[in-house]
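Sequence and structure are no longer studied apart. As an example, we show below a sequence and the tokens encoding its fold:
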Amino acid sequence: FTRLVSLAPWLGQQHQAACSMRGGCGVLCLRVVEQSRYTVTVVLTHHLETGSPRVSDLEMRIRFYLDARVAEVLSYQGQSSWYSFWLSRAGIVGYVCEKRRLNHFLEDWLEHCLEQGYCFAGEISAA
């Protein structure tokens, strides 16, 4: 949660979208898709500049619980079906492990973005 707030200090204020560019690192875009009093759901997309069709852009749908100050990955690469897959294949333990893995990846990804100098502070536009 704190890493995303470091990237987008305006999160939770109003429906917005923003992009941040870093030469050679691609374009990072954040779009608020749903907002309520206690939650904000965003889509975070990293448009990579690889020049290879084999490497796809990174995309996550994330829900932020403003009162609890936590984040939860809802989908990764447009897929939310991993929820039912893990419940049917590995039971609740497998689901919890997969959820933890995706949330840990989100943490690492946001840390990487901060280290690369991405920031949405001055690049806000209406959604």
Residues 123-127 have pLDDT under 50 and may be disordered. The beta strands are 16-22, 26-35, 39-47, 58-65, 70-76, 124-126. The CA atoms of residues 7 and 119 lie 5 Å apart. The two ends are 21 Å apart (CA to CA).
